[in-house]
Amino acid sequence: MALYKYRALDVEGKPVEGTIEESSAHRVTKVLQERGLTVNTVEELHRERGLLRVSKRLSWDELNVLTDQLVSVARSELPLAPAVKALAADLRSSRLKPVLDQLHKDLEQGVSLEDAITRQHASFPKLFPSVIRAGEKTSNLAGVLQLLCNYTTRMIGVKHTLQLAMAYPVMVLLIGSCVMGFLLVKVVPVFADIFHDFGGQLPWPTQFWVDMGDFMVHRWQAVVVGIAAGYIAARLLRAYLARTQSGSAWLDWLRMHMPVLGHMHYLMAMARFSRTLGMLLASRVPIIESLELAAASSDSPLLQQAVEEASLQVAGGERIADSLSGTGFFGHNFCWLLSTGEERGRAEDALENLANTYDREIATRDKLVGTMAAPIMVLLLGGIIVSLLVSLYLPIFTLGDVISGS
Asked: 105 is in which domain, residue-wise?
């Protein structure tokens, strides 16, 4: 993605300029025309480069700290610049500190909060500048900042739920791997040496684990290099595919069709889209722009393609629910509830309820996956360890014959 600066004219012929992050200048022109602007110039300001670039994006916890403080400042009607400076002074070694320092400098120079955040677009989600712009235009900055604070709080909750669901299975895997490594490196070679001293031939299961132990002891460098090379190659391939629209869509299709976890990926994308769209509509952000930003926040290229297709119909006067229904990506229940909300003039409430429904289903599936994953991993690791121990004891049953034969 690149950051573009544009100059255009609105429907009344007044000059308008700003910045927007998009994949190409052509895409910027298309988006601006959909908003009813006549584009004069589009200039590229920044482009992300490199396959192994380090992300500057603030974490949800850092964003939550920032939005929570800004809500308090906006409600107290205190000056933003000194408040941001005071918040930065309390931080020592956080990625948030340089961001706040730059925000303070821009705000002191008279730059609006929206433009100040846009200048640091790499650190913030795409929806932040538009939501804040809506708050500044409607003189409801405290209200939209509270929506952003609620949004970041909810995203933190989702992240913690996923971490808790995966904690136990990961611990089982680590402990099992340590046990396996100890047996292969310390125990298996002793059994092999004892049996070889009597000139016996090891059974094939035992010989297999002996060879595995030898490989771990004498070729561990190759194992480490192989794992590192495979990881780097996978990251490079993923980054390369993610740079193209078709490659990103293919990766997203694979994620959504993974066994067990695929549907969870779909639910998480729908939850993010629903919650963000509801927040943007509640902030009175224009519908087309709201759809675009909500789709970007979903982190799903397939969903973004569907919303881009639907946006053309929405721009033509169709309702959001009807336009999304025609894409085939959104389920019947989602479209029906959203349609009901639109008919009652409460689309944002319907979207919030849908997001909560998706979150509950994600939490249920998280618990199910976490509950099932641990026993399955224990059984698999236990089976491997038992097969290893049995293989070690097989030579003992024939050791007497070997000794008498020798």
From this structure: 60-153
Residue 177 confidence (pLDDT) above 70: yes
3-state SS assignment for residue 331: coil
For the entire predicted model, the pTM comes to 0.60
Residue 18, SS3 per DSSP: strand
Give the separation between CA 289 and CA 311, rounded to whole angstroms.
9
Both 133 and 242 in one domain: the answer is: no
- Please check whether residues 93 and 173 belong to one and the same domain: no
Question: Which among 129, 153, 177 is the end of a domain?
Answer: 153
Is residue 303 assigned to a domain? yes
Q: For residue 270, give the 3-state DSSP assignment.
A: helix
Type of residue numbered 97: K
Q: How far apart, in whole angstroms, are the C-alpha atoms of residue 320 and residue 314?
A: 6
Model pLDDT, residue 389:
73
107 and 230 in a single domain? The answer is no
CATH value at residue 121: 1.20.81.30
SS (H, E, C) 59-72: CHHHHHHHHHHHHH
* 83 and 117 together in one domain: yes
How would you classify the pairing of strands 15-22 and 2-9? antiparallel
Q: Are 4 and 18 in contact (CB under 8 A)?
A: no
Report if residue 52 sits inside a domain: no
Q: What gap in Å lies between CA 59 and CA 61, rounded to an integer? A: 5
φ, ψ (nearest 5 deg) of residue 41: -140, 150
Q: Give the separation between CA 9 and CA 286, rounded to whole angstroms.
A: 17
pLDDT band for position 67 (50/70/90)?
confident
- Whether residue 53 lies inside any domain: the answer is no
For residue range 234-283, what is the model confidence (pLDDT) as tens digits?
888 877 777 777 788 888 888 888 877 788 888 888 988 888 788 778 87
What tokens were used for 376? 């399955």
Q: Tell me, what CATH number does 23's domain have?
A: 3.10.20
List the one residue out of 172, 41, 227, 48 whose CA is nearest residue 122.
Answer: 48
d(CA 261, CA 227): 24
Q: Report the distance separating Cα 88 and Cα 103, nearest Å.
A: 10
